[in-house]
Design a protein that fits this description.
single chain, 197 residues, alpha+beta, seven-stranded antiparallel sheet, three-stranded antiparallel sheet, 10 strands
């Protein structure tokens, strides 16, 4: 009986070490400080993402694999008599790549791009969402309550098919935040309002 106790304790220690190593290797994204505010051309969204790569993603980028990241935004209004009304739905895509000739990381969205000397700098910039115009001023009514939702994710569907098959079956390629939701009440005046939950 004493041997069984030692065996189960050893087994438990090995399982704990494996779980700890898996959590250390996991890629993660957290959303902080989402804010929807009134800008010159409508409502703009600002947020910060903490993007932590695991070694698998770092290696993939360093070997020339382009990673696509998508920021999703939704605004809905609750209705007691039917499904919630979707007021707005927007996405923005970023491409992260490494260029071996220049030894620089490149972050692109649309026709705009910026180069960085190392991956940490590129990820810091990727994690800074600033003044993204997501909503027309006339789409919402002052003093009504809306639910704003935001998430950030690695989009595997835009990668080459060979990588998609590997990535879909491997947890190392799962990089997505939970939906961050907060209530939004458009002001009567010029300033925006946001209460993150």
């Amino acid at each position: 009986m004493h041997c069984c106790g030692k065996f189960f304790r050893s087994l438990l220690q090995v399982a704990s070490a494996l779980l700890l190593s898996l959590s250390v290797l996991a890629a993660e994204v957290d959303i902080r400080n989402p804010l929807l505010a009134l800008g010159d051309d409508g409502y703009v969204l600002t947020a910060d993402f903490t993007v932590d790569f695991n070694p698998r993603l770092e290696e993939a980028v360093a070997k020339g694999v382009i990673l696509y990241f998508v920021t999703d935004f939704e605004l809905t209004r609750a209705r007691w008599y039917w499904l919630d009304e979707k007021i707005a739905s927007r996405t923005q895509t970023f491409r992260l790549s490494y260029h071996a000739l220049t030894r620089q990381y490149r972050l692109s969205t649309g026709a705009l791009h910026q180069s960085f000397d190392n991956l940490d700098e590129a990820l810091r910039m990727l994690g800074r969402l600033r003044n993204w115009n997501v909503l027309d001023k006339t789409a919402v009514k002052p003093d009504d309550t809306y639910l704003a939702s935001l998430r950030f994710r690695l989009d595997l569907s835009q990668m080459p098919k060979t990588f998609q098959v590997t990535a879909l079956s491997n947890r190392d390629w799962n990089l997505a935040s939970e939906w961050s939701r907060w209530s939004f009440v458009p002001p009567d005046g010029k300033a925006g309002s946001s209460d993150s939950k």
